[in-house]
């Protein structure tokens, strides 16, 4: 075991992954090291498979190739029961919160404790109230998840995620769909949980500004692999086009505005434009105008 | 032409894969040491939502089907002056066929569809994933209690259905149409046997319970977690389970009474 | 608390199920004493009772006065002995009454038709446990056809 392994809670090496038996690879040769006790941000354009990454670490998906080590255990190789043992040490905050809709907030947070321990009810109550206090929802203990706002639901889910004092929390898009105030609350919570409990955090997001204020390390994923990594300051100073496009949010650049496909002209005319004849070009440009109008109409 | 063959091949493969998934799901859910202390309240909760809440529809439809049987049977039998045979006619049709089959069909529509939708929605809202990440096996926590609840509830519902149906037949036949009460019961009693009729009906019901609950859980657990996917899965539960019940009923009837 | 309510409801559910099963078992598939009120018993021996069953009605002029409560074989020659339970309201049958196995309709169930006998000073009334001497057996179709053919052959 090298010294790097000691410092890194999660080590991902040379991972290839594709959904199902499909040839469309989500990841090819992915390499990542998540430092222990730090907040690591994973950023990238939408649809790049960031949630898939968290599911790979959690063992819900298995890569076709490569190793994913959590605290030295190779997650894809573990038996079912060993995997469940390791999962007790990690937890995940889902995008939707994923609170159990048929239980009150209190029961939701007590749920993992009841499942994994035989603690008496008074101790469970103490733990649950402590966790609720940490996210500021002690007063909402008897509400049902349907009665919570989106931001409160996510905080309640966060309280549930820390109920068993995990070593690793994975946040899946924690800021998506939040108003500025609840976003600020969640940013503060992630930071304070990391500081006070020393929990390793992986934050998957595309909200650049928020996450850069708290992250210790940032990975940018694009094109099936990590394209940039470093501290927030290092990335801001980077001269890589893609990094700059992503950090400043420009619409076109190395990450193209258009999804890969045949050229627009080919889609419309069924063939590439013939640039040889001046006449045909004129004629076609007229056609193209009308076709574009049609196309706009369809798009509308 | 080749495309059609390929499509056929794909659908066969998908069906086999689906059956395999369903088998693995059931085995994983049921095998393993049961933790009685934790699973008992869960079972009760599911027995309540699957069994108790289906009681009203079962009692009402049982009563009406029994009454219709009484009415129809009477009009046919009275032509032969054999209206005393109304009792066994009502009782045997209910105990052997209608009790188990109609209960299973109603169960598929009432409880099966709601099981599928519930589990599908749990999947869509990531509740199942979140259970897994909490190191709680959703098969053991979610699927297994629902399966047993369905398996235990349906035979009870079928028994209640048959009993209520016989009472409905009695109401129409004896109270309304004036078939002799003693003959109604006595001829019924001399024609209905414990092992041959009542017990076989219960066995049928157990088989249907197994199949319907299994299909409902499988469709929910392996649905596409979108609104369209869940609605398709729910429809598919009702259709598949109903067809399976009717098909199996023929096989079972042939084995038991053939 | 909520799970307790669920348990209670499930408990009732199971109890209803058991009651329904008892109903099916006792009412639909077994014998039980259904009639209530005061009764007394009469006996009658037949050569053949045909399709008569326990709990078949005993009628006087079409009115049900009692039920067949037991059918056994009696005596050295194994004659069918029918025990009738008659309502105590009708206790004035003379010992000249007759009883016959009749069929309601062409395919209907068989029942016992009781015809009250004449009454004068010399006859006594039937009491609990008495035998009705004058009985007519069930008509068996095969016997009838046999007799018919036999009588045809004699002509």
TrEMBL record, chain A:
It comes from Pseudidiomarina halophila. PANTHER family: INTERMEMBRANE PHOSPHOLIPID TRANSPORT SYSTEM ATP-BINDING PROTEIN MLAF (PTHR43023:SF6), PROTEIN TRIGALACTOSYLDIACYLGLYCEROL 3, CHLOROPLASTIC (PTHR43023). Residues 276-292 have a biased composition (Basic and acidic residues). InterPro entries: AAA+_ATPase (IPR003593), ABC_transporter-like_ATP-bd (IPR003439), ABC_transporter-like_CS (IPR017871), P-loop_NTPase (IPR027417). One of its GO terms (molecular function) is ATP binding. Keywords: ATP-binding, Nucleotide-binding, Transport. Signal peptide: none annotated. The keyword Nucleotide-binding applies. This is Phospholipid ABC transporter ATP-binding protein MlaF. Residues 10-248 form the ABC transporter domain.
Automatic annotation (TrEMBL), chain B:
It is found in: Cell inner membrane. It holds the Pfam family MlaE. The chain crosses the membrane at residues 12-31, 52-74, 86-108, 149-178, 198-217, 238-257. The keyword Cell membrane applies. GO terms for cellular component: ATP-binding cassette (ABC) transporter complex. It comes from the Bacteria. Coiled coil: none annotated. It is a multi-pass membrane protein. Keywords: Cell inner membrane, Cell membrane, Membrane, Transmembrane, Transmembrane helix, Transport. GO terms for molecular function: phospholipid transporter activity. InterPro entries: ABC_MlaE_roteobac (IPR003453), MlaE_Permease (IPR053408), Permease_MalE (IPR030802). The complex is composed of two ATP-binding proteins (MlaF), two transmembrane proteins (MlaE), two cytoplasmic solute-binding proteins (MlaB) and six periplasmic solute-binding proteins (MlaD). Belongs to the MlaE permease family. Part of the ABC transporter complex MlaFEDB, which is involved in a phospholipid transport pathway that maintains lipid asymmetry in the outer membrane by retrograde trafficking of phospholipids from the outer membrane to the inner membrane. Probably responsible for the translocation of the substrate across the membrane. This is Intermembrane phospholipid transport system permease protein MlaE. It comes from Pseudidiomarina halophila.
TrEMBL record, chain C:
Keywords: Membrane, Transmembrane, Transmembrane helix. Pfam families: MlaD. The keyword Metal-binding does not apply. The chain crosses the membrane at residues 6-26. One of its GO terms (molecular function) is phospholipid binding. It comes from the Bacteria. Residues 39-117 form the Mce/MlaD domain. This is Outer membrane lipid asymmetry maintenance protein MlaD. It comes from Pseudidiomarina halophila.
């Amino acid at each position: 075991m090298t010294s790097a392994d000691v410092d890194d809670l999660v080590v991902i090496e040379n991972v290839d992954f594709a959904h199902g038996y499909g040839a469309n690879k989500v990841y090819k040769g992915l390499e990542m090291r998540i430092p222990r006790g730090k907040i690591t941000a994973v950023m990238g354009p939408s649809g790049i498979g960031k949630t898939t990454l968290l599911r790979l670490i959690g063992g819900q998906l298995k890569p076709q190739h490569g190793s994913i080590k959590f605290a030295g255990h190779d997650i894809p190789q573990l038996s079912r029961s060993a995997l469940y043992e390791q999962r007790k040490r990690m937890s995940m905050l889902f995008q939707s919160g994923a609170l159990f809709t048929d239980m009150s907030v209190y029961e939701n947070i007590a749920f993992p404790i009841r499942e994994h321990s035989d603690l008496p009810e008074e101790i469970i109550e103490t733990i649950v109230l402590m966790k609720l206090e940490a996210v500021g929802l002690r007063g909402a203990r008897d509400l049902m998840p349907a009665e919570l706002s989106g931001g409160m639901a996510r905080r309640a889910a966060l309280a549930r995620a820390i109920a068993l004092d995990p070593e690793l929390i994975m946040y899946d898009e924690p800021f998506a769909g939040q108003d500025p105030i609840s976003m600020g609350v969640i940013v503060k919570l992630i930071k304070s949980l990391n500081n006070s409990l020393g929990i390793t955090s992986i934050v998957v997001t595309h909200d650049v500004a928020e996450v850069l204020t708290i992250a210790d390390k940032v990975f940018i994923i694009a094109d099936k692999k990590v394209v940039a990594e470093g501290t927030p300051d290092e990335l801001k100073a980077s001269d890589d086009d893609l990094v700059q496009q992503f950090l400043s949010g420009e619409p076109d650049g190395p990450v193209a505005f258009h999804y890969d496909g045949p050229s627009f002209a080919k889609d419309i005319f069924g063939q590439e434009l013939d640039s040889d004849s001046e006449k045909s070009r004129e004629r076609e440009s007229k056609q193209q105008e009308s076709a574009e109008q049609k196309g706009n109409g369809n798009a509308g | 032409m080749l495309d059609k063959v390929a499509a056929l091949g794909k659908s066969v493969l998908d069906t086999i894969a689906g059956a395999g998934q369903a088998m693995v799901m059931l085995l994983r859910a049921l095998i393993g040491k049961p933790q009685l202390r934790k699973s008992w309240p869960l079972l009760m909760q599911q027995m309540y939502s699957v069994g108790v809440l289906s009681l009203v529809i079962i009692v009402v439809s049982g009563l009406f089907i029994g009454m219709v049987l009484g009415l129809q049977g009477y009009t046919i039998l009275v032509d032969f002056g054999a209206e005393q045979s109304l009792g066994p006619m009502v009782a045997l049709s209910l105990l052997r066929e209608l009790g188990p089959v109609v209960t299973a069909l109603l169960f598929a529509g009432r409880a099966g569809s709601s099981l599928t939708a519930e589990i599908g929605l749990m999947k869509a809202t990531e509740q199942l994933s979140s259970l897994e990440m909490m190191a709680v096996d959703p098969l053991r926590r979610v699927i297994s209690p629902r399966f047993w609840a369905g398996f235990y509830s349906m035979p009870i519902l079928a028994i209640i259905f048959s009993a209520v149906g016989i009472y409905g037949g009695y109401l129409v036949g004896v109270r309304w149409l004036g078939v002799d009460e003693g003959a109604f019961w006595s001829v019924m009693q001399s024609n209905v046997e414990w092992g041959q009729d009542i017990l076989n009906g219960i066995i049928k019901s157990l088989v249907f319970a197994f199949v319907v609950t299994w299909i409902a859980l499988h469709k929910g657990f392996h649905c596409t977690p979108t609104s369209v996917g869940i609605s398709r899965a729910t429809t598919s539960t009702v259709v598949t389970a109903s067809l399976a019940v009717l098909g199996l009923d023929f096989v079972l009837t042939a084995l038991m009474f053939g | 608390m909520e799970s307790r309510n669920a348990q209670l409801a499930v408990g009732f559910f199971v109890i209803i199920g058991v009651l329904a099963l008892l109903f099916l078992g006792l009412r639909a598939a077994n014998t039980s004493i259904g009639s209530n009120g005061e009764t007394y018993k009469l006996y009658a021996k037949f050569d053949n009772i045909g399709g008569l069953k326990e709990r078949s009605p005993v009628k006087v002029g079409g009115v049900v006065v009692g039920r067949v409560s037991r059918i056994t074989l009696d005596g050295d020659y194994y004659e069918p002995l029918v025990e009738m339970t008659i309502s105590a309201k009708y206790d004035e049958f003379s010992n000249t009454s007759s009883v016959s196995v009749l069929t309601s309709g062409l395919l209907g169930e068989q029942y016992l038709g009781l015809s009250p006998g004449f009454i004068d000073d010399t006859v006594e009334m039937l009491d609990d446990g008495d035998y009705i001497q004058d009985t007519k057996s069930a008509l068996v179709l095969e016997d009838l056809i046999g007799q018919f053919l036999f009588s045809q052959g004699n002509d």
